[in-house]
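Q: I have 290 residues here and want to know how they pack in 3D. Can you give me a structure?
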Amino acid sequence: SEAVIGTAYCYLNVKLMARTAQRLGKSDDEQHYTELAGRIRDGFNNRLFNRQTAQYESATQTSYVLPLAFGMVPDDLRPRVIQNLVDDIMIQHQGYSTVGLVGMQWLMEVLNNTGHADVALTIAAGTKRPSWGYMIANGATTIWERWDMNTRDPGMNSEALLIQTGDVVTWLYEGLAGIAHDPDHPGFKNILMHPRVLPGLTFAKATLDSPQGKIVSNWLVRQGEFRWEVVVPPNATATVYAPASDAESVRESGKPTASAESVTFLRAEDGASVYQVGSGSYEFTFPAPK
């Protein structure tokens, strides 16, 4: 609904103002915008959220995606809202999205960050309309401006540019290959490397020309082993999330990570072993996730 979209973006903008004020050292402005954001969040959930059903007004995929993406969902009901989104995609719509321009910007990221990269893959691999695969099957060489460009008047329709800013390419880099920016260290001065390993996928290869130089993330699953080539450019560092729950099983260039140069173990988190690494080339190996 308009109320969900408008209020959610109002909250996001105010949160951005608070963060900008914090970065500029304007503590009074930071406090003002932080308090305003809290009031918007409370009003949003009081007016537009049904706690019994864990649904937002209109109960569309976008109505779940925006509050999840912006951090507006009450903490105690976040798991149920996530499940409602997944059920809407996988059950009500048989693995297809119903989002338009606004929701598409956040859909894949939200699924990835809530532990449902498999659902994102299902959407990305779809071949019926609405899907990118449908476009390819019908001769597209770039993303259409509309899901149904081949069956409607082919003229441009500025009110229906549903796909132009879709984040499927971002998801391929961030979600599958695992190359993401670190908000606390802009310009890829520190890189977040966090690939998702999904049933049916055996490899991913990605390179990104960043301001610091070329970033590489190539992984391959073969005969029960996960091999991950990582290149961190000069003048950069990376926080590496190896998808291995047992840090003892992780090797770098065949050696235990404890004895690997420029590799420091930080913590275990969400089934991953997390390391801080310096610039250079690495090859991490460990038993492939089940």
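Q: Anything worth noting?
A: The chain has a mean pLDDT of 91. The chain has nine helices and 13 strands.
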